[in-house]
Design goal:
There is one protein chain. The chain is mainly beta and 517 residues long. It folds into 4 domains: 4-138, no CATH class; 149-196, no CATH class; 209-372, no CATH class; 383-515, Jelly Rolls (Sandwich). 4% of the residues lie in helices and 41% in strands. It has helices at residues 23-40, 154-157, and strands spanning 4-5, 12-13, 42-46, 52-53, 63-67, 74-78, 90-97, 105-109, 119-120, 126-132, 136-138, 149-150, 173-176, 179-185, 193-196, 209-216, 219-226, 239-244, 253-258, 262-265, 280-287, 294-298, 320-321, 333-334, 345-353, 369-372, 383-391, 395-397, 402-410, 418-429, 434-440, 446-453, 463-473, 481-489, 494-496, 498-501, 504-515. The strands form 9 sheets. Strands 27, 28, 30, 33, 35, 36 and 37 form a 7-stranded antiparallel beta sheet that branches. It has a 6-stranded mixed beta sheet with strand order 23-24-22-21-25-26, with no helix packed on it. A 5-stranded mixed beta sheet has the order 3-5-7-10-11. A hairpin with a 5-residue loop joins β31 and β32 (446-453). The longest helix has 18 residues, at 23-40. The relative contact order is 0.08.
C-alpha cells in the first residue's frame, strides 16, 4: 500500500508497520528535505503568453520568482491538492514579479476558477501571500501599496491601475516635464486617466521653492533652495517654475526646472535705492533668460510715492548687472558677471529690513523677514488696508499753521511700507489764500507738498472750495499713526473741515492707504 501524502505540501506520511528498512530514505527525501525547501528555497518560472500552473512538487518552495515578457494579463496558479480535484494546496509563500511589459501578473488557485480569490503582484515587487485552499490573499491586509514609476507622457505610456482601500493599492506614477502624475482610472495605454498632483497646471506658483538670505563681508546673498531639503536643487530634486510664454499671441506656460545652485549677491555700496537707517524691502524675482533662469533683486519703492510694479503677465524686462553703482530704486538687477537677456519674470518672494541698515549698501546684518510670494501675498503698489473718515467738525484757522479736525489714524503692518494720505478738504474763505498740508502727528511733522486754495468772493457766506490734499509717507513704525491736515491762510481767517453754505452742510472726507512696497 502506497504511503499517503499531506493535503497542502504533499509530504509523505509513512504507513505504520510498513516501509521496512526505507524509513530513513523516505523521511529524508519526502519530509525533511521537502520541509527544508518549503522553508527557504525558491523556484523560478517564466510567464509570457500563457498562465503557468505549479505542480505539487514545485509548490514545495518558499519563494516563487516569475520572469518573462508578458504579452497580456496572466496568472501563476497554485495546483489542486494531491488528495482532491476541488481543493487547492494551502499555506504561506512569497511571489516576486520580475516580468516586463505593462500587463498584470495575478496569483490564484486552481480551485478559484478565476472568479474569486485572485490577487495581483505589481511588477518589481515581492508580495507575501497565503492560500486558504480556495482563495489567495495578501499576508498583510491592504498590502502592497506600490507605485511603479514610468517615464514619458503618462497618457500614452502606461495603462494604470487606480488604488482602492485594502485591495491591492497599486498606483501608476509618472514624472514628466517637472510634473507628477498618478493614474486614477484603469484603462488602456491611450485611455487611462491621470491626475496632475504636482499642483502646477497652467500658470501657478513655484514648486519646491525656498529662499535664504545670508550676509558676509558686508555682502547680501540670496539663494534659491529646494524646500524639501533646504539645499541647492539637483536633477533629482529640482525647483520648478512656470513662466508666461512671453509671446503675445500664445497663452501657454513654459516650465523651467532649476537643477543646480542659483544665487545673487550684492556688492558693497549697492544700495538699490535704500537709504541710511531707513526700512526697505527687496523683491526677489526670477528671469526666464531663454530657458536658463537667473535670480534678480529690485527695490520697488522710492519713498516719495514712486512704486515700480512687478508684471508677470509677459512684459519683458532687461536687468542691469549688480555693481557698486547699483544705487537706483525701480531698477531690475541681476548677478554681477551674469548676462541676462530680455526676460519675463516670476516673483519668488521678498526680504525686508524693518529697521534698515546703518549705512545703506553695507549689509552687516541679515534681513528681518524673508517671505515667499504666492496666493494672498500683495505685490508692490497693492493696498494692504484702507481707512476712511468723514469730518464734520469745523476749525477756524488764522495765519499760523494750525492743526485742524481733519484727521484719520492707521497702523502700518510693516515699517517698509508707504502710507498714502489723501483727502477732499472743505475750505470756506474770503479773498485770502488757504494753504493745506498733511502732517504725521501733531508736532507737526509735515509730509507731502502743500496745497493752495485761492480766494475771491462769490457769496455773502464766503467761498466754499473742496481742496485735494495728497501725501506719501513712510512712518517707519508698526504702531498707530494719526495724520492731520494743518492749515494757514495769507490774511484774515478761514474755516476748514465742515460748514454750511446756501443751507447745505459740506464735510471733508479723508483716506489713509497702506501700500505694499
Amino acid at each position: 500500500m502506497a504511503d499517503a501524502l499531506t493535503n497542502n505540501l504533499a509530504l509523505i506520511q509513512p504507513q505504520q508497520g510498513g516501509d521496512s528498512g526505507t524509513w530513513g530514505t523516505i523521511l529524508n527525501n519526502g519530509v525533511i528535505g521537502a520541509l527544508d525547501n518549503i522553508l527557504g528555497s525558491n523556484f523560478s518560472t517564466s510567464i509570457t503568453s500563457v498562465d503557468v500552473t505549479l505542480t505539487t512538487t514545485q509548490f514545495q518552495n518558499a519563494i516563487f520568482i516569475v520572469n518573462g515578457a508578458l504579452t497580456g494579463d496572466h496568472s501563476l496558479i497554485l495546483p489542486f491538492s494531491t488528495n482532491s480535484t476541488t481543493v487547492a494546496v494551502g499555506g504561506k509563500f512569497i511571489v516576486i514579479n520580475n516580468t516586463s511589459n505593462a500587463h498584470k501578473l495575478s496569483v490564484k488557485t486552481a480551485a478559484a476558477n478565476a472568479t474569486s480569490g485572485v490577487v495581483t503582484v505589481p511588477q518589481g515587487q515581492a508580495c507575501a501571500l497565503y492560500s486558504d485552499t480556495l482563495n489567495v490573499g495578501y499576508d498583510n491586509t491592504g498590502l502592497p501599496a506600490s507605485v511603479p514609476a514610468v517615464s514619458g507622457s503618462p497618457n500614452t505610456q502606461l495603462a494604470g491601475t487606480a488604488g482602492a482601500a485594502n485591495v491591492n493599492a497599486s498606483l501608476a506614477a509618472d514624472f514628466n516635464a517637472g510634473q507628477l502624475y498618478l493614474c486614477t482610472t484603469t484603462g488602456t495605454a491611450s485611455t487611462a486617466q491621470w491626475v496632475n498632483v504636482a499642483g502646477q497646471p497652467g500658470f501657478n506658483t513655484a514648486q519646491n521653492l525656498a529662499l535664504s538670505a545670508t550676509v558676509g563681508s558686508n555682502i547680501l546673498t540670496v539663494s534659491l533652495l529646494a524646500a524639501n531639503t533646504v539645499a541647492s536643487p539637483t536633477v533629482g530634486n529640482p525647483v520648478t517654475v512656470i513662466f508666461q510664454n512671453g509671446t503675445g499671441a500664445i497663452g501657454t506656460p513654459t516650465t523651467s526646472n532649476i537643477t543646480s545652485a542659483l544665487s545673487i549677491s550684492t556688492i558693497v555700496g549697492a544700495t538699490l535705492g535704500s537709504q541710511n537707517g531707513t526700512p526697505f524691502r527687496f523683491w526677489v524675482v526670477l528671469y526666464s533668460n531663454g530657458g536658463t533662469p537667473a535670480l534678480g533683486l529690485i527695490n520697488c519703492s522710492t519713498l516719495s510715492g514712486g512704486i515700480t510694479s512687478l508684471d508677470e503677465a509677459g512684459s519683458a524686462v532687461t536687468p542691469t548687472q549688480m555693481s557698486a553703482g547699483a544705487t537706483s530704486a525701480g531698477v531690475f538687477y541681476c548677478a554681477n558677471g551674469t548676462s541676462v537677456a530680455s526676460s519675463v519674470i516670476r516673483i519668488l518672494g521678498y526680504l525686508t529690513y524693518e529697521t534698515g541698515l546703518v549705512t545703506a549698501g553695507t549689509y552687516n546684518n541679515a534681513p528681518t523677514f524673508v517671505r515667499l510670494f504666492g496666493p494672498g501675498v500683495k505685490k508692490p503698489g497693492d493696498a494692504l488696508q484702507n481707512i476712511t473718515a468723514t469730518i464734520s467738525t469745523p476749525t477756524t484757522v488764522g495765519q499760523s499753521n494750525t492743526q485742524t479736525a481733519v484727521t484719520a489714524s492707521i497702523t502700518p503692518s510693516s515699517r517698509a511700507n508707504l502710507i498714502v494720505a489723501r483727502g477732499i478738504v472743505y475750505v470756506q474763505q474770503g479773498s485770502t489764500n488757504a494753504i493745506l498740508q498733511w502732517s504725521r502727528g501733531t508736532s507737526p511733522t509735515l509730509v507731502g507738498s502743500p496745497t493752495t486754495s485761492g480766494g475771491g468772493g462769490v457769496s455773502s457766506s464766503g467761498i466754499v472750495s473742496s481742496a485735494p490734499v495728497v501725501a506719501y509717507d513712510q512712518p517707519g513704525v508698526v504702531s498707530a499713526q494719526s495724520y492731520y491736515i494743518f492749515a494757514k491762510c495769507s490774511s484774515g481767517t478761514i474755516i476748514v473741515g465742515s460748514g454750511t453754505v446756501f443751507s447745505t452742510t459740506v464735510n471733508s472726507t479723508v483716506e489713509l492707504i497702506e501700500l505694499m512696497c
